[in-house]
Amino acid sequence: MLKKNEAVNDGLVNGVMGTIVSIAEFLEGSLPNVIFINFDNERVGKNAKIQKTINGKRCVGLEPSIEDIPFKNGTRKQFPLQLAWACTVHKVQGLTVSQAVVDLNKCFTYGQAYVALSRVTTKEGLHILPIDDKKLGQKIYCDPDIIKGIKSMKHYLTENVEASSEETLVTIVYHNIQGLRAHKNDLVANSDCKDADYVCLTETWLESSSDHVYLPNYDFYHQPRSALYTPTNSVFKNLQAMGHGGVGVYVKTDSEYENCNFTVENLECMTFRIPTMNVLVATIYRTQKYQIGIFLKTFISFVNKLTELSNNIIVLGDFNQDILKGERSILDYMTSKGFQQLVEEATTEGGTLIDHVYVKGCSKVEVKGIPTYYSYHDAVSVMLKDSR
C-alpha cells in the first residue's frame, strides 16, 4: 500500500494498493533507485514519468521519497510503502477494486458495512467471510439521523393507491411552472403531468403570443403578461411592463377543447370549455404587485361572465393569498358565489397555500398535490369523476 500522496491527479495517493513486481538496481546496504509496482487499479500512475512493462503488466516506477528533518539537521529517504495483506474499512474509503474479501464481524458503527461492501465493481468479485445471520442487523445499519431525514422528505413518485370505483373522466393538472422553457424537460418527465388531459400553467415567462414550447402529444395555447394588460393608468402600465408572468394551457391531442373568446382586461387568465361536459376551466395568475382591492374588482367582473356561460366551472391558479394565514378576501368572495375551494394543504416550499382550486356545479371532483423538485410551487391534480 502506498502511504503518501505522491501525485494526486494521477491517482498515486495514500491508500492505493498494488503488487511489487521488480526492485531495480538494488545494492546491499543502500536503497534501490526504483521499485516497480503493478497497481490494482489500472488507471493509477498512467502519467507517471517512470513506467515499464514487466511480464506483460504495466508497472509504475516509484523513486525514494526525500524529506528534510529540520530538528535533526538530517534527511529522511524512504519508499512510502507498507505491506497490506488486509486493511481497515476506514482505509479503503474511495477505493474501487475488482475483488475483495470482506469481514463484517468487527464492524462497530453505522456505515462501515456499506463502505466495505461497495468497494467492488461486481457482485462476483465480492467475497464475504462467514458471519452469524443473527448479527447482520447489528453490523449493517445506517446513521439514525439519515432514517429521520428520509422520513421527513416529500415523496416525488406517485404511490400505489387502491383503485377507485369511480371512473376518472378528465384530469387537469395546474402548476406555477416558474419558467416553461427552463422546465419543459421536467414537465415531460413528470408522470402526473404527461398523463393529464389538460396542463394549465402560470408564470410561463414567455414574452410573446407566438412563443411555442413543444410538448409531445399536446397542443399549446398561451398568453404573455404584456398582452393581458391595457395601460389605462399607472397601475396597469407597471403590471404590463413587469417581466415574467404569463399563462398557458397544454391540451392533449385527443382531448376536447373549445377556446372561450371573451376576455377581461387586466387579468392574467386563459379560459376554455370542455364541450361534452359543459365545464369551463379558467387559469388565473395574480402577482403580489397587483393590489388586492383593484384585482378583486376585475376578478369579480370575470367570474360574473363565467357564471353567465355555464353552471359547471373550475377556476384554478396562483392567487398569492395564503389561506392558511387567514388571507381570505378571494376565498370569501368565491364562497359567496357558490364555489368550493378544494386545496387543503400548503402548495409551496414556504408552507403557504396560495394555489387555489375553486369548483362550482361539478358533482364529483378530487384534488391532490403533486410535489415537484424544480419549482417553488407544487403542482395540483384535479380529477373529474363519474360516480354512476
UniProtKB/TrEMBL annotation:
Residue ranges of every copy of the Endonuclease/exonuclease/phosphatase domain listed in the record: 189-364
InterPro entries with a match to the protein in the record: Endo/exonu/phosph_ase_sf, Endo/exonuclease/phosphatase, P-loop_NTPase, PIF1_helicase
Superkingdom, taxonomy of origin: Eukaryota
CDD domains, sorted: SF1_C_RecD
Gene3D superfamilies registered for this protein in UniProt: Endonuclease/exonuclease/phosphatase, P-loop containing nucleotide triphosphate hydrolases
Segment forming the signal sequence: none
GO molecular function, one term: catalytic activity
Family annotation (PANTHER family): ATP-DEPENDENT DNA HELICASE
Protein name according to UniProt: Endonuclease/exonuclease/phosphatase domain-containing protein
Organism: Mytilus galloprovincialis
